[in-house]
Specification:
2 domains, 13 helices, Rhomboid-like fold, elongated, two-stranded antiparallel sheet, two-stranded antiparallel ribbon, mainly alpha, 283 residues
Length: 283
């Protein structure tokens, strides 16, 4: 089932062009990458989509495209070009929405990558084509469900590891979105392939439930622990101060790039409050 259909090929070419631009021009990367503060405070919702075409390097790009190559052709042939494109884009946005929720208290958190969309393709393939097998690097042949399970475990490890700029959290959101979209397109798959779907979905659901219950499991994200009382009042004050500084810098960057008229009424009011706060801090 290896190969690209027309949509898979267009996705690969699009990612290559956008990744090249992002690697060549840092301003381009900064403008279009996924960043919590820019999305939540500046309402730059387009980043939920644009970040999925950027990558931190050619190795990152190559890995995502290799996974897509292993799954895209069979799934695109099964769904058709239009439905495959819709599933890919919905998985991309769904993955980034989960990342936005998990990292909502880290305004400076940023990531890039087609991970969410690719995970959606992988898990849709598991649901719709459970008997499919794929060969990794021409050496190891795995059933699609085993590949998906391995993909989830690597993603969970990546979320808890140090920040690499890779959107590991988007993997899980994309995987869930891909399964939901596949079930919506072909409802029979839930009943026919429920064992395979559960094998792939349970680790994801279990980890997300753990995160909801104990947010501090996200290692390296100090801010997730403040509600559990693990830090002093000074720690909490410093975290809040850093968040406000980041928010103010983002608003000022927007003015620098597009002028003061580019700010909405809400953003101007927020900037005025932040400016007053900063003057009090500096006094």
């Amino acid at each position: 089932m290896n190969g690209f259909g027309i949509i898979g090929l267009l996705i690969c070419l699009g990612c290559a062009v956008v990744t090249y631009q992002g690697l060549k021009y840092d301003s381009y990367l900064q403008r279009y990458k996924f960043q919590v503060g820019a999305i939540l405070n500046l309402r730059q919702y387009g980043r939920l989509l644009s970040a999925g075409f950027l990558h931190v390097g050619w190795l990152h790009f190559g890995f995502n495209m290799l996974v897509l190559y292993n799954f895209a052709f069979g799934l695109e042939g099964f769904l058709g070009a239009g439905r495959f494109a819709g599933l890919y884009l919905l998985s991309l946005v769904g993955g980034n929405l989960l990342a936005l929720y998990l990292h909502r208290r880290q305004l400076s958190y940023s990531a890039v990558g087609a991970s969410g969309a690719v995970a959606g393709v992988v898990f849709a393939c598991i649901a719709l084509l459970p008997g499919a097998e794929l060969t990794v690097f021409g050496l190891l042949t795995l059933p699609s469900w085993a590949y998906g399970l391995l993909y989830v475990l690597i993603s969970i490890y990546g979320i808890r590891a140090k920040d690499t700029g890779v959107g590991h959290a988007a993997h899980l959101g994309g995987a869930i979105t891909g399964l939901v979209v596949a079930a919506a397109i072909e409802p029979w798959v839930v009943q026919a392939n429920y064992v395979t779907i559960l094998l792939a979905l349970l680790p994801t659901a279990a980890f997300l439930a753990l995160v909801m219950w104990r947010p501090e499991v996200l290692a390296g994200a100090r801010i997730f622990s403040q509600e559990r009382g693990l830090y002093t009042l000074d720690d909490r004050s410093n975290i809040a101060k850093r968040q406000r500084q980041e928010e103010m810098n983002q608003l000022l960057d927007k003015i620098s790039a597009r002028g003061v008229d580019s700010l909405s009424k809400r953003e101007r009011e927020r900037l005025a409050r932040l400016s007053e706060w900063w003057q009090d801090v500096e006094a």
